[in-house]
Amino acid sequence: MTPLEGLAVFAAGVGAGGINTAVGSGTLITFPVLLATGLPPVTATVSNALGLIPGNISGAFGYREELRGQRRRILKLGVGALLGGLTGATLLLALPAAAFERIVPVMVGLALVLVAFQPLIGKYLRGRRARTGVPARKDGGPLLFTGMTLASVYGGYFAAAQGIIYVAVMGTLLDESLQRLTAVKNVLVAIVNTAAATFFLFVADFDWTAVALIACGSALGGQFGARIGRRFSPAALRALIVAVGTVAIVQLLLR
C-alpha cells in the first residue's frame, strides 16, 4: 500500500466512523477504497469489519446519554446480535458473494421505506392498539428480537446499511425517539462487527495496515458523528438516513 493509498484509507475510515455513528452505511465508503488499493473482496471485507470496531465503540460512547435506561434492551438484543454476527460471518466464507448481493438492495430499500414512513406506521399501530385494547410491549416482543437477529446475520456477512436496517426495525416496533434508537444501533453494530471479526481472525486473511488505518480513522470519525448526529431533529435525522440509504442502494446496484 502506497502512502497516498494509506491516506485515502485513513480518510475513508474517518468518514465511515462518522456516518456509521449518525446513520449507518459507512462500509460503503471504506469497502470501495480498500478494493481500489488492490485487496481481494473477502480480505477487504474482513479487514474492514475489524477496523471499524473502534469507530463503533467510539460512536456508542458518544451516545452514552441516550443509552441510559436501555440496559435490559441492549442485553437482550445483544444476544441476537452476537449469534447473528457469527452466522453472517460463517455465510461470508461458505456462500458465493452473488447469493446475498441480489437481495441486499431490496433489504435496504425496504428499510428506507420503514424509516421514511415510521411516523405514519407508528400512528397506525397506536390507533390499532387503542381500538383492540392490546397494550404495546416495551421490549418489542419476539418479532423485534427475530428481526434484529436476522439483520445481524446480514451485518456479519456484509455490514453496508446494517445500521439503517436496525433503526428501521426498531422504529417500527418500539415507541422510542430516533436518537435513542440510534444509540442502541451503535452498540449492536459494535457487537456484530466484533463477533464477525473474532471469527475471521481464525479463518481469513487480514491486511493489518488497512485494519490499523481504518481503526484510527473510524475512532476519530465516531466522535465527530456522535457530536453532529445528536444535534439533528427527528425529521432531519430521518431525511439523512433516507438520503444515505438511497446512495447506498445506487452504489450496491452499480457494483
Automatic annotation (TrEMBL):
It is found in: Cell membrane. The chain crosses the membrane at residues 74-97, 103-122, 143-167, 187-204, 211-229, 235-254. PANTHER family: MEMBRANE TRANSPORTER PROTEIN YFCA-RELATED, TRANSMEMBRANE PROTEIN YFCA. Keywords: Cell membrane, Membrane, Transmembrane, Transmembrane helix, Transport. GO terms for cellular component: plasma membrane. The keyword Glycoprotein does not apply. Belongs to the 4-toluene sulfonate uptake permease (TSUP) (TC 2.A.102) family. Its main location: membrane. It is a multi-pass membrane protein. This is Probable membrane transporter protein.
